[in-house]
Specification:
Pfam families: Peptidase_M17, Peptidase_M17_N. This protein has 14 helices and 21 strands. The chain has 491 residues and is an alpha/beta fold. Strand 6, helix 4 and strand 7 form a beta-alpha-beta unit. The mean pLDDT is 97.
């Protein structure tokens, strides 16, 4: 069962809970209790920071120390978590709350004082840090996530803030669940069914094109990539009308390759299992569109999601093939492992037919993103103003993003011998930027657009940290949500 969040009240020192969470800050070698824990400190005769320092606490961000309270407070367990140096910002609170929630696994009921610092960040961090994907385990394989966490807050609008933060975190965990679902259970047909189920529960309109409709409709990219698999492709459209008075129209596009072998240009066996995450962009835009509907955001949001499985077979598309994309442009396939941009090109053209005010696409598009920016920083390309706006939101939410250029000279590298353009260039350099340039060819003039390459940030292969679990991360749901709320407020 997912962790339940509630607003706490009263004195945390006398709360009837199993554990209490307090924050620690480090400054110039001194250890200090963070704001919000004064009652707990009083119960320890004002010496709690000194006691924790003796026990080895340093206040380093995400450091967790568990100590028995021995009757000093009602709760039998105290969990102290580091917030780093200086005044903690929202992401420090989010990361500390995530680390504390993970340390509380197996606990029935806890109370956190971190909500007094930043309720939204504490709520998001707690739910995301407690996340565990156990659907395919016969045994949970460890302690259950903390059952309930009460968050203290003095904010006047605390109830509404908690409601929104819970909805946002739930959208992130929805995306994580989709990414973590193995490809034999999540393939185009079943993925489309999951998207329909989520959307209809939130009052979102759904349209699904099957493989026959895709061929008849001229979606040559999705059809070409998906033709090598027995599990045929789909294109899903989710539409939230934005309520009675939508202020803007936003098109979201997400890459939905449910498994990527590379096709005939097959990938090495090592780490190919991670290609179950190649639909992370699709998961993010589906979850974000449903979130917009659940919270009644006054922005019309439509997600266009191409779904395919890229497999080698006697029916697979080949290097050298020419595909006619939706809208009529032709693409020479030089590498079948550059399949994401082919299905996205179809989706971008279709999404642009709705005449959106903004068009945002996100995908696990290139390994070059990780070479350039590492595994935690997405590359953001596109129209400069929108690009910079998204990168700023990505950084503010803690999801990470960096504005990247689309140099005009790279377009010549995509010239084809036989078609309008090729799907890859003949050089290894600037692969992330080349992919962005390719996508830009399918965006109509005058439409503000951005591409977010999340190849690294969408899937974490190491041990958990902060509020990030191993596996699907849910990036960039919170970035997209921050952008949509910004658009709702500022256009």
């Amino acid at each position: 069962m997912p962790t339940e969040l509630q607003l706490g009240s009263g004195d945390p020192a006398t709360a009837t809970v199993d554990a209490v969470v307090v924050g620690l800050s480090a400054s110039e070698g001194d250890l200090a209790l963070a704001d919000g824990a004064v009652e707990i400190d009083t119960a320890f005769d004002g010496a709690l920071a000194e006691l924790l320092a003796v026990a080895g606490a340093t206040g380093k961000l995400e450091e967790v120390l568990r100590i028995p309270t021995r009757g000093a407070i009602t709760a039998p367990l105290l969990v102290a978590v580091g917030l780093g140096k200086g005044d903690p910002g929202p992401d420090a609170v989010r990361r500390a709350s995530g680390a504390a929630a993970r340390a509380l696994a197996g606990t029935g009921h806890a109370l956190s004082t971190l909500g007094r610092i930043d309720l939204t960040a504490a709520a998001e961090g707690t739910l995301l840090g407690a996340y565990a994907f156990t659907e395919f385990r016969s045994d949970a394989g460890g302690k259950e996530p903390v059952g309930r966490v009460d968050l203290l807050s003095a904010d006047a609008d605390a109830a509404d803030a908690l409601r929104v933060a819970t909805a946002v975190a739930t959208a992130v965990t929805t995306a994580r669940d989709l990414v973590n679902t193995p490809p034999n259970a999540l393939y185009p047909e079943s993925f489309a069914a999951r998207a329909r189920e989520l959307a209809e529960a939130a009052g979102v309109e759904v349209e699904v094109l099957d493989d026959v409709a895709l061929v008849e409709g001229g979606f040559g990219g999705v059809s070409g990539v998906g033709q090598g698999s027995a599990r045929k492709p789909r294109l899903v459209r989710l539409s939230w009308a934005g309520g009675a008075s939508p202020r803007k129209k936003v098109a979201l596009v997400g890459k939905g390759i449910t498994f990527d072998t590379g096709g005939i240009s097959i990938k090495p066996a090592a780490s190919m299992d991670q290609m179950t995450s190649d639909m992370s962009g699709a998961a993010a835009v589906i979850a974000t569109t449903v979130l917009a509907a659940r919270l009644g955001l006054p922005v019309a949001v439509t997600a266009t999601v191409p779904m395919a499985e890229n497999m080698p077979s006697d029916n697979a598309y080949r290097p050298g093939d020419v595909l006619t994309m939706y809208g009529g442009k032709t693409v020479e396939v030089l590498n079948t492992d550059a399949e994401g941009r082919l299905i996205l090109a179809d989706a971008i053209v279709r999404a642009a037919e709705d005449e959106p005010d903004y068009l945002i696409e996100t995908s696990t598009l290139t390994g070059a993103q990780m070479v350039a920016l590492g595994t935690r920083t997405a590359g953001v390309m596109g129209t400069e103003e929108l690009r910079d706006r998204i990168a700023a939101h990505a950084q503010a939410t803690g999801e990470g993003g960096w504005a990247m250029p689309l140099p005009e000279h790279l377009r010549a590298d995509l010239d084809s011998r036989v078609a309008d353009l090729a799907n890859v260039s003949g050089t290894r350099w600037g692969g992330m930027l080349v992919a962005g340039v390719f996508l830009s060819e399918f965006v109509p003039d005058g439409v503000p657009w951005a591409h977010i390459d999340i190849a690294g940030p969408s899937f974490h292969t190491g041990g958990p940290y902060g509020y990030t679990a191993k596996g699907g991360t849910g990036v960039p749901v919170r970035t997209l949500w921050a952008l949509l709320t910004d658009i709702a407020e500022n256009g």
